[in-house]
Amino acid sequence: MSGITGIFNRDGSPLDRMLLQQMTGRMAYRGPDAQEFWSSGQIGFGHAMLRTTEESLRERQPCSLDGEVWITADARVDGRRELIRKLGPAFRSELEDATDPQLILHAYREWAEDCVLHVLGDFSFAIWDGPRKRLFCARDPMGVKPFYYSLSGDTVLFSNTFDSLKAHPQVSCEVNEQAIADFLLTGLNQELGTTGLRDVLALPPAHTLTADARGLRIRRYWNLPVGTETHFRRAGDYLERFDELLVMAVEDRLRTRKVGIFMSGGIDSPMVAATAKAVMARSGTPYDLRAFSAVYDHLIPDEERRYAHSAAASLDIPIHFMAADGYLPFQTAGRVPPPAANPGDNIFAAKHF
Question: Looking at the chain, which residues constitute the CATH 3.60.20.10 domain(s)?
C-alpha cells in the first residue's frame, strides 16, 4: 500500500517542512514509485506512491482539484461507475479519467464529510479543507487500510505508517502495556482506538476524524447492517444470486492485468481465483494471474501444499509456496523491520523480515 502522513498545527503556527520531509522519507519502503510532500502554513501532507492500478500510473499525490482542498490517500475506490453516476453528468467525462484520490475529492466537494457514505472500497485518507481551515480524515468500514494519529498540544500528526510518526520528536517509544497484554492473552488488541505505543492512537474502522481550531472530533459513520434477510422462491436462486454478486465484486476490483492472490487449498480463495481468471480471460487481452500460499512442510501436520497445488493446477495458474517451517524465534533479530502498530502473527511479514 502507499504511505500517507501529515502534520496539522491547529493554532495556526507554521509547520516544520524539514520534519515533514523526514516523515515522508520514512515511508519510502511503502511507496517506491514516488515520494512527494506539500505544505501551506499550518498544514502539510506527505505521500509515498505504490502504483497498483492503471489509473495510478498518472497519479500524483498529495493532489488538489482547485488548489484549496488537498488530499493524501492510500485508497482503492470500488464501484467507480456508480459513484460517477451519483456525482452527476456535469463532470462525467472528467470523472471517467479521474484517479481514485480525485474521485474522493469530487465526493467531498459534493457531500462534504458525508462523502464517506458514498465512497466504497479500501481507503485511508486525509483532506485539508483550506477555506474552512479543517482537517478531515477517514478509514474504510472494514479497516483494511490503517490510520494512526498522535496528539501533542495543538499539533495533530497522522500516518498509515508507524515509523513515519516515530520520526516526530513528540512521539515517544513508550509501550502501551495494556495493548501488549491484550495481544498476549487474546491474540489482538481489544481497544480499537489504541496501538502498541502509548503516544500513537488508531482511528477505528468506519470512523472519521475532524480537527480544527476548536478541537478534534471522532465519529462513527457506518454500522454493519443486521436483521435483514433475503428470500427467494427457489433454492437455485440463492446460488445464482451469489454467483452474480461474486462476479460483480471480483470484476470491480480487477483494475490491472497483473494480479496476485493469496490462495489456500480450501473453498473461498480458489473460488475467487477461478472467478478472477474467468473475468480476465473474457476480455481477450493478455493477463498474468498467479497464486501465493504459506505452508508447513515439517513443523506440523499440514496438507495445505497438496490441496493448494491441486487447486492451482485445476485452474491452470502458477502458484508460489512459502514454507514457514524454517522461521525460528529471534533468527532475524539482527535485521530491524519497520515497526508495526501492534504485535502480529502474519507469516508473510515475518518471513519477509
Answer: 3-220
